[in-house]
Amino acid sequence: MEPVAYVAESIGCIPFKLQYGTPRRTRSAFKRLLLSILCGAGFALVPPEAASAGGDLTPLLPPSSVTSSTVPPNGDSNPYGVAFVPEGFPRFGTIDPGDLLVSNFNNKANLQGTGTTIVKIVRNSKPVVFFSGSGLGLSTALGVLKAGFVLVGNVPTTDGTSTTVKAGSLLVLNRTGDIVAQWTPAMAKIDGPWDLTIFDQGNQAKVFVSNVLNGTVVRLDVAVSEDGVQIKAATQIASGYLFRADAAALVVGPTGLAYDPQRDVLYVASTVDNAVFALFDAGSTKHDGGKGVLIYADNAHLHGPLGLALGPNGDLFTANGDAINADSKQPSEIVEFTPQGRFVAQLSVDPVQGGAFGLAFSQTRSDFVRFAAVDDNVPNITVWRLPFDDSGR
Fold it and tell me: pLDDT per residue over 157-203, tens digit each?
């Protein structure tokens, strides 16, 4: 790891002081992506001529952002999973391409592992219920197949305590929110499906699932048709991540997953290890590769990484849940870092610890990308529209 330097700069809308451990190329990409969020997060603007003089970025107006409630009519709280509905998703259902879905882990009484709803976020209004079940506890394992199906994991409890946690299952929902399949632990080699990511290939897909109750990751090779989604093979591809019950967080273990299909690398955010690992050949291997290769262990900026996403600039973004290595001066941080393990930047979504969890990027378009992150302390979700182009600038 290179020594971390402190560099004072000005970026279009605000002067700031930030830690940099990366070359100028990465800082430039970061300016155009994550810190543009800061410009729309309540900071005062400086005159354009002053901003222009401070850096190499042409001044832009702060990107638009919208913060919306995630609480459905039944009062479910603690939003965990976040997923955008992809382009190509069939219409004539209750969700459409571009919609944003959020899964809830707690019920109205805030008992963990008892939330039963997935909501569709509505701009400047209350969310709309897409799915409502019973006896669930919907986790961060939320993803959407463009053929018209939603996958969601559940890690239920009886009374909101870790002593009653169950192995759960994965539900397959159609575009109107009806259950068309339920994948049990025996079928899918799951044990507490805590998060997932999908490599969607149309008529087939690879679904990677992290298991919080046994510290493993599995790959589900599935066939997709208009009639449903079927598991063709379930392969455990990683193990050995630390996991345990936790008085505040219920359970902690491997969580966020992000897949790079071009390199066939799966990135795993291991909460208790307070680190991020890389599994090579993740989409094709038939074997368990253990934890994989450690790529990022940073006690200064990692505080129990949870949700994980691969940004359109090639960097990784993780949400810190603060259950591990907590720092009151860095609450609820989203951290950006390179796949080579270099810290780039961080952003707090709540002044109190424990607010950050699920996050997601939308598909890139010619001029913008959307970035969504929940704050389960409130609870709500903020969506930023970020300037972006196909070259990553």
Answer: 999 999 999 999 999 999 999 999 999 999 999 999 999 999 999 99
pLDDT of residue 123: 86
Q: Which two tokens stand for residue 18?
A: 């930030």
Q: Which amino acid is residue 109, in one-letter code?
A: A
Same domain, 227 and 265: yes
> Residue 200: how many CA atoms within 13 Å on its side-chain side?
21
Q: How many domains does the chain fold into?
A: 2
Structure tokens at 345: 């930047």
Instruction: Tell me the pLDDT tens digit for each residue of 2-48.
Output: 333 333 333 333 333 334 344 444 444 444 555 555 444 433 333 33
Give the type of residue at 54: G
- Note whether 35 and 116 are same-domain residues: no
| Number of residues assigned to the chain | 393
Same domain? For 76 and 150 the reply is: yes
CA distance 53 to 67: 32
Q: Residues 133, 152: contact at Cβ < 8 Å?
A: no
The enclosing H or E element of 50 equals helix 48-54
Q: Do residue 249 and residue 276 come from a single domain? A: yes
Distances (CA, A) of 99 to 102, 127, 178: 10, 11, 17
